[in-house]
Write a structure and sequence with these properties.
This protein has one domain. Helix content is 70%, strand content 0%. The chain is built from 4 helices and no strands. The longest helix has 28 residues.
Length: 108
């Protein structure tokens, strides 16, 4: 499982750098890579939101409200991933629909 995940991440990295000859291609590849990464890592929103809500409020609230909020954010990440993957050739390229752009940002 871990080897497949690493291989997928390497494939994404290679794919996003292959098309650097033209700005159009690079932006489209970045949008596609963002969609793939967000689709694969969307489930991380659940523990992230449990942690953030527990840190902000109290552990019980983090487990209950954070779990619900994380599930909702997971659905949003999957929707954004589907949007980015299916429409990666169409503008706008540089603006993600959801902030932060990737799930691994914003843990502070």
């Amino acid at each position: 499982m871990f080897k497949k995940f690493v291989a997928l991440m390497l494939l994404i990295a290679v794919f996003s750098t292959v098309s650097s000859a033209y700005a159009y291609d690079q932006n489209a590849a970045t949008k596609l890579a963002r969609g793939i990464v967000n689709g694969v890592t969307s489930w991380v929103e659940i523990p992230k939101q449990v942690y953030l809500v527990s840190k902000e409020r109290e552990p019980f609230t983090g487990i209950t409200y954070g779990l619900v909020q994380g599930a909702a954010y997971t659905v949003l990440r999957v929707a954004e991933a589907a949007y980015d993957i299916s429409l990666f050739l169409l503008p706008p390229y540089d603006k993600p629909l959801f902030e932060p752009e990737f799930v691994f940002e914003g843990w502070e």
